[in-house]
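Reopening: structure tokens for the nicotinamide-adenine-dinucleotide complex, inputs below.
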Amino acid sequence: MASYDVIIIGSGPGGYVCAIRCAQLGLKTACVEGRDTLGGTCLNVGCIPSKALLHASHQLHEAEHNFAKMGLKGKSPSVDWAQMQAYKDEVIGQNTKGIEFLFKKNKVDWIKGWAKITSAGKVEVGEETHTAKSIVIASGSEASSLPGVEVDEKVVVTSTGALSLPKVPKRLAVIGAGVIGLELGSVYARLGAEVTVLEYLDQITPGLDTEIARSFRSLLKKQGLEIITGAAVQGTEALKTKAKVSYTLRKDDSEHQLDADVVLVATGRKPFTKGLGLDALGVETTKHGQIATDAGYKTSLAGVYAIGDAIEGPMLAHKAEDEGMAVAEILAGQKGHVNYDVIPGVIYTHPEVASVGQTEDQLKEAGRAYKAGKFSFMGNGRAKANFAADGFVKILADAETDRILGGHILGPAAGDLIHEICVAMEFGAAAEDLARTCHAHPTYSEAVREAALACGDGPIHS
Ligand code: NAD
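Re-run output (same inputs, fresh job):
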């Protein structure tokens, strides 16, 4: 048994960042993690491994489609799945060991095992009980279930199983055209699978700016993904090595079946709080099953805080990280704060999709007068040279003040480009501020500047 200033439960991006910052601010800190490695879903079975597969499959796509055009001739590479998995595992290992190193460097104790809060200030892990002045729950999320769909992580899989399939399936059915479904669906499509995505709503990627979502959908179609919207999945039937998905089309209630070798269920995630003992302690939850917190991340139990996927808000690693930093600062007597108006969202497909702030749909619904400045990557020299001219940048600015209200990018490196707009928004910048900032040529970021110019007197290259 040991006593700490802070015990953090969970070592995902929310938990480990919180732990490191707590230690840096002088608090005696421990982090409880039950997995064999640190880093949570993100590093072990989420963001990081999926990015390795996205990168590898994109390289294959480049070799198959663009190398010859650039004068790079020769036999196209073929997929060595075992090696690709080994590469992915190597990347995971480097990252999870990196967190272990950072814990040691910052003197954060890793308590190995699954935590249960037995009372305010007491955390039981296995046979031991540890005490802390404050406890931070950063226990993350797990895939939600769908009625009639039984996940076996072999034939019917969540993202976890989809990252470690024994081979590239011939036919992959994906339930849900959200972030996971489209990222992993496009990986397997590039690796040669026939991919069909079934989406309940009439649009893919709910919440995304509609214009971006429509263009994104047509690009995915060009890449060979079949996307069926308005499809209500009724259930799956798993046979030994394949499965059937039954669905009805909402427009006419017609019934359909889809055969696949693997079915990926990607219909959202829910907070993971199993075993924490929260029910017994009467910790309040929201109607969506998230741990309820106040603006300072306090739960209804004194001295217990919660952050990340386990509480309200977008389930994003970077949102959890920022909350982890904020709680650490609050516990150290400072003023922690997260600006929820400026949290970027990125879909790591090719091209990427990134957005921040308000969508055009939201501005229309709010009746707000706005300007939309758009610029296509077709007018960007660097994008053309790199065979990456699909997509566009859209900046939304207040019609009167020119203050940037939102930014949406479908295109190359969108996930990096978006941060220029995020910083501008944090500083309350006007579109003209971006437009008047010198941007290096030739870069993709010139497309952001041109979209800002389009909010004023107009872009130069379109
Ligand atoms: P999601 O919420 O992004 O998408 C789920 C999709 O499934 C939605 O489009 C929804 O309409 C659809 N759906 C729900 N029920 C359905 C049904 N019965 N039949 C057909 N379609 C149905 O969820 P996700 O893709 O599972 O991701 C889970 C969470 O993880 C999200 O919060 C996401 O933001 C996060 N995540 C983020 C990233 C990233 O930032 N790049 C990557 C992976 C996951």
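The first helix runs from residue 13 to 24. The mean pLDDT is 97. Marking as resolved unless the reporter disagrees.
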